[in-house]
Design brief:
This protein is mainly α. The chain has 19 helices and two strands.
């Protein structure tokens, strides 16, 4: 078909007359794009699948037509059959194929400028958002809460939500797309792997946008509740004129680490890279991650770390309220241990560890010896060999059993002697 209009105005009767060289209007094109996008949404695909299955189940006794006959009759319509099919099912497939080709005809004859392309993309995107299955799939919980909290600390709420939405939107779209692709192939629609890739891309972008939008709604509701609490507190205190209270979303959502997360969001990217490098270095060296020194070098993070330290020191265990008093009393009454005392405790620990290990080794050796003797006895009896060597080995094992205590005491004395006791 021709796709060049040469500036000719759209003829409203061109579609009925069959003159495809005439352009369709932008409204008609966007309508066809919306219908086509909805046709390949998960909800619509599932509905069409069950509709075709229902037609087949209601016409069980209908005769089947050979594929050669069907191909000769419907090849020009874009349908090709490999197996016999009932006429009722063919009618459904034919109706869907004709509707699809009609939409494609309108889209191909529509405007192709930049603005029209943007509107086409927006129409497909909005149509995808209208499908509840796509919305649910965009919120499959892939990113865990702890991971999301760390992302919030690094990027802030908006970017963290967008990144989380991209990941979960991609996974959700990839999980749903095989259904759409399978139904499209079963009805011989012009829907290939490139269309599936585009659908997954749309789902990924949709997930990012939905997460940001849902997050903004959550922030709005949190702000409303915060303002209500402030208003009630001021009314009780009799305060009429006061400045607008500032809402700290980090404190609302993550009260335990709100200062540090807020400070991280305000720091420059270079400081974040230094923090990440220090943490990775600690992990690679097998040390406990400690970025306090780097954090204190930044004025914003220094204040956040100090506030976090003060808040953690002021925490009280509600389950055991006497813990604070005991801790303070211990700080006053507990005498510091000398270096000699610590060395003695370390030596004692090492000696006990050696004793325990020696006992385990002895028991293991005895058990191995017993199992070997029993195995040899069994083989010897099967072959009719005299029990001379086995009896000797059994006596040795018995002797070891009777002298186990003496052996243990000798090992312990050797360990104590080695440690200087």
């Amino acid at each position: 078909m021709a796709n060049i209009a040469f500036g000719v105005n759209t003829n409203k009767n061109a579609q009925e007359m069959g003159y495809d060289m005439f352009r369709t209007s932008l409204g008609e094109t966007l309508g066809a794009i919306g219908a086509d996008a909805w046709n390949f949404n998960p909800t619509s695909s599932i509905g069409r699948f069950y509709e075709l299955q229902d037609v087949r189940s209601q016409n069980v006794n209908e005769p089947y037509i050979l594929p050669e006959v069907l191909n000769k009759k419907y090849a020009d319509e874009g349908l090709f059959f490999y197996e016999p099919e009932q006429q009722s099912s063919v009618n459904v497939l034919l109706e869907r194929k004709q509707a699809e080709r009609k939409r494609q005809n309108i889209i191909q004859r529509g405007p192709n400028d930049f603005l029209s392309g943007a509107l086409k993309f927006g129409t497909s995107f909005v149509t995808s958002m209208a499908d509840p299955v796509n919305i649910v799939a965009a919120f499959i919980p892939i990113v865990r809460e702890a991971r999301f909290a760390s992302m919030v600390g690094r990027y802030g709420f908006t970017r963290a939500r967008f990144y989380k939405g991209l990941k979960e939107g991609f996974v959700g779209a990839a999980a749903v797309e095989p259904i759409v692709y399978g139904v499209a192939q079963s009805e011989q629609a012009d829907y290939d792997m490139m269309d599936s890739f585009t659908a997954v891309t749309f789902g990924t972008i949709l997930g990012g946008g939905l997460h940001v939008g849902a997050g903004k709604l959550k922030d709005f509701n949190t702000r409303r509740k915060f303002n209500n609490r402030i208003k009630e507190a001021r009314e009780k205190a009799g305060i009429d004129d006061a400045e607008q209270a500032e809402l700290n979303l980090y404190k609302e959502y993550y009260p335990e680490t709100s200062d540090v997360m807020k400070g991280l969001a305000k720091t420059d990217p270079e400081t974040r890279n230094i923090l990440l490098t220090k943490a990775m270095e600690d992990l690679s060296m097998g040390r406990k991650v400690d970025v306090t020194t780097v954090a204190k070098s930044d004025p914003v993070l220094r204040k956040a770390v100090e506030n976090e330290k003060v808040s953690s020191e002021n925490k009280v265990d509600t389950a055991r309220p006497d813990n604070d008093i005991k801790a303070k009393n211990n700080e006053v009454t507990k005498e510091p241990q000398t270096k000699d005392d610590l060395d003695q405790e370390a030596d004692y620990f090492e000696s006990q560890r050696g004793i325990d290990q020696s006992e385990r080794d002895i028991e293991l050796d005895l058990e191995n010896a017993r199992s070997q003797v029993e195995s040899l006895k069994t083989k010897q009896r099967e072959q009719g060999i005299e029990d001379i060597q086995i009896e000797s080995s059994a006596k040795e094992v018995e002797e070891i059993n009777t002298k186990t205590k003496e052996l243990k005491d000798a090992i312990i004395d050797g360990i104590n002697c080695f440690n200087g006791k």
